[in-house]
Please model this.
Amino acid sequence: MRHLSNRTGAALLMAPLLLFLALSYAWPFLGVVKWSFTLPEPGLGQYGVLLTDPLVQSVFIRTLRICAVVTAASVICAYAITFVWVRGTPTQRMLAEFCILVPFWISVLTRAFGWVALLSNRGLINTWLQAIGVTSEPLALVRNEFGVIVGMTHFLIPFAVFPLASAMRSLDDRVLLAARGLGASGTRTFWTVFVPMTASGIIGAALIVFVFALGFFVTPAILGGGRSVMVAELVYLRIFQSPDWGLGAAISVVLVLFVAALMALLFRYVRPRQMV
Amino acid sequence: MHQPGRAAEIKAIGIGKSFGSFRALDDLTLDIGRGEFLTLLGPSGSGKTTFLMILAGFLPPSDGRLLSDGVDITRQPAELRSSGMVFQGYALFPHMTVEANIAFPLKVRKRSAADIRQRVGEMIERVGLKGHERKLPSQLSGGQQQRVALARALVFEPGVLLLDEPFSALDKGLRGQMQAEMKRLHEETGTTFVFVTHDQSEALALSSRIAIFNHGKLLQVGAPEEVYDRPANRFVAEFLGEINMLPLTGVRQENGSMVGVCEDRTVRIGAGSGVSGDALLAVRPEYMSIAREASPQQNGIAATATASTYLGAATKLDLETQHGAKVTVSVPNEVAASALNGGNAVWLTWPSDKGILLPAGGR
Model:
């Protein structure tokens, strides 16, 4: 019965965390669920608004669109960085590690303002582009969807790196050698053997990034300049600016359910161990 | 590039490989004949796998040249060399079906779909995998995975098939079966096979020639009978199977054959030359027999039986000579019983052409 006692031990170790989560998160969330059915009057009214209100719907569609683009961009960039990190020369590995870890240590707020400094009309990029004569007018790089996507992608790349690295590390080098020996070029080996064999890492990375992206608040608020409102910001606006708690709560519940469904998918296709 | 279907002839000239200050392979010169089954045999770290990786094009040699059918391929990358390769652990593509694995080298070569279908079908039949075409490697047994690896490496008719310890993961029964199958595939395809193993019985059973490696050096190349019966040095003699070593003194030539003094008796030696004075006499256990009395015509020394091991078909008898050398003999069961019951000294005899003369000392 060693197995059982190990399980009991693990449960005991996790107990304080689970208790904390139950008290600080699950309990208050039940309150939010209650609001969504009771404010301003009891019934399913707020969910009806969700299905019919064009503003709410446009925010949901924008959120999904931004999340999809951010997921694709983050996973592709992370794949390239991880490839260098796992398979590069020692110098390349160090450089990749630097690029992955340094952004990790800087706060999300600082990074968002950093991108404003780079992308704004009088920011570094527009100044340079005008100085070397590529453009005469500053390009609109921030306070729109483009800025939001850049900032979110930059923030989320490290989260995609870890599942990808785990998939790439577990790959048997001899399989790659076999492909070369059978006549495949490096490029062909990459696309027909390396990429398919790391598919579980790609799926895991994409789901993690997508789930994180859905709940983004600070980055879209700063880099979107109020014009590219995403779901999390909409909840904030409904609850703190126009006292419409019922609708804000209903949006939150839908968002949580959606994330839960994605997490279920994630655990089904990728073992949790592969994500770290 | 190599013409499909024709066995390749490979020449290695002065090949060497260093990893930092470690010399993995030193000055190796070896001709691999068209269509032969050459085994690279040696303990781990002897340089045999390094040489295979150089042949495949996965490792560039530090020195020397490699010719395939007279063309210098020393710097040619692996994918242009197109030697078939079977890896230790098979290295199948886990995300592809059996069929797709075998079709891979043909697809890379842009063969027509009809051609690919036909060849893959033939190959699947030839290695006995019919009915498993749509399975993934993880759904196959070890022996079946081995067959897929062989089929994938042979389907594009490479000039040479390189095999890196392909049987090390199989159990003993299956191993014998796969060995027979590989021998048949070699005969059917006529391709040059270069096979790496550390198992000497596997090497003796399969090869047309064996190349024996130790410490990065090629020690001897020859047919199995040749390296077994005429080893060039003590390492080869001992690596290929059990062998008894007896010190010799006063080795000289006499009437066209070699003679020496072993345990105070003069013995004749068939093989080995260029040795005089002190030397070693090596005799395999199965060539020695037990006699009750000395005969002046035969090589023989006195010994006492100390232990026996019953092996079923024969008995392994451990003896000690008068001078304290340990000797092992494989004899019929009843001979062993009487030798042990006697308790007294027996005579160990062997035909003079089965005695091998080796330089003293050096291993």
Notes: The mean pLDDT of chain A is 88. The two ends of chain A are 29 Å apart (CA to CA).
